[in-house]
TrEMBL record:
Record keywords: Ligase
Superkingdom of this protein's organism: Bacteria
Name recorded for this polypeptide: Amidoligase family protein
Species, as recorded: Pontivivens ytuae
Gene Ontology molecular function, alphabetical: ligase activity
Pfam families: Amidoligase_2 (PF12224)
Length: 325
């Protein structure tokens, strides 16, 4: 499957928008993971058993690490951590963090994923208890409300349709790491709350989403706008990065499935941005959502068919077909 193009290809300063990808899996340990990546992409390895960099690969510096948060939850025992370093990857998740790539060069990573598959990497379906995911970090056009709000609003209004047409693994669905936006927040987005200035957007978002555990985590962007205001509205233990990227956490990591490519998930994201670029369509979805919520009783499962109807009325294909294009 080819990687679809973003509807807005460049940032406000004229550079090609970048995309950073992250993958979680078990199987090969850190060393064998780096070896597989090196075979596919070149470069030189440096680091220890828990964390290594593949420097100067054909796509830049790649970070490979054990999920030491898993180890720390088991306790601070140094003997345990030593053993984990020796068996890590078999029982402890490995995470790959790729450098930002131009969005029109994402196909460069496919040979690396094929090498990891051959090395025995097991993703979401191969290790359901771990709830492994693939994260897509897409650079914003700018931090201006006009460039951020339509994308957030579009995602909020079609998220139920994405989950219906492109469902995630049951194990991840049952765990809280990628919970959907609350319906109260979708109501706020449909009404246009938070669209006038950054403070209002931070306030309405954190009122409903004081956590990173959403399909689309906006906290990194909002911290890049005003970190102090964001942190003041989050629980004390809620941490996270600060970067001007849409942190799309919903996708499964299906690295072990023959023929799978990140293009499958990337094309879902580009569909969100395509819908966001059509102001009339977004307004129609917003009005449709408010009418849907005004009914005597509603379920989240009632909304996806209405999304498709609104898309057709706007001259688009249904959501599943758009995401597969």
């Amino acid at each position: 499957m080819p990687y679809a193009s973003l509807p807005v290809a460049r940032t406000a300063d004229g550079s090609i928008r970048g995309v950073g990808l992250e993958f979680e899996f078990i199987g090969p340990d850190v060393g064998r993971t780096v070896s597989a990546l090196r075979e596919a992409l070149g470069g030189e390895a440096e680091g220890g058993p828990h964390s290594q960099y593949l420097r100067d690969s054909s796509i830049g510096d790649i970070k490979v690490l054990l999920d030491m948060g898993f180890v720390q939850r088991e306790g601070p025992d140094p003997d345990l951590q030593r053993v984990v370093g020796e068996i890590g990857g078999v029982l402890v998740p490995v995470e790959i963090v790729l450098p930002p790539l131009p969005h029109d060069e994402l196909d460069q990573i496919d040979p690396a994923l094929e090498a990891l598959r051959a090395a025995g990497a097991q993703g979401t379906s191969g290790a359901a208890l771990y709830a492994f995911g693939m994260h897509i970090n897409t650079e914003v056009v700018s931090l201006e409300i006009a460039d951020i709000y339509p994308v957030l609003r579009a995602f909020a209004l079609i998220e139920d349709g994405i989950r219906d047409s492109h469902p995630i693994d049951l194990g991840r669905w049952m765990l809280p790491f990628v919970d959907p936006y609350p319906r109260g927040f979708i109501d706020a987005m449909a009404r246009g709350e938070g669209r006038n200035n950054p403070d209002d957007l931070i306030d309405v978002y954190t009122q409903h989403n004081a956590t990173r555990n959403r399909g689309l985590d906006m906290l990194p962007i909002l911290r890049a706008i005003d970190a102090e205001r964001v942190q003041a509205r989050l629980p004390a233990g809620e941490k996270g990065g600060t970067r001007p990227t849409f942190h799309y956490r919903l996708p499964d990591c299906r690295i072990d499935e023959p023929g799978w490519s990140p293009a499958v998930e990337w094309n879902v994201w580009t569909t969100v941005e395509r819908i966001a670029s059509d102001a009339a369509l977004i307004d129609a979805l917003a009005q449709g959502w408010l009418a849907h919520r005004a009914r005597w009783t509603t379920l989240r499962t009632d909304w996806p068919p209405r999304i498709d109807a609104i898309l057709r009325e706007g001259g688009y294909a249904e959501l599943k077909e758009m995401m597969a294009a």
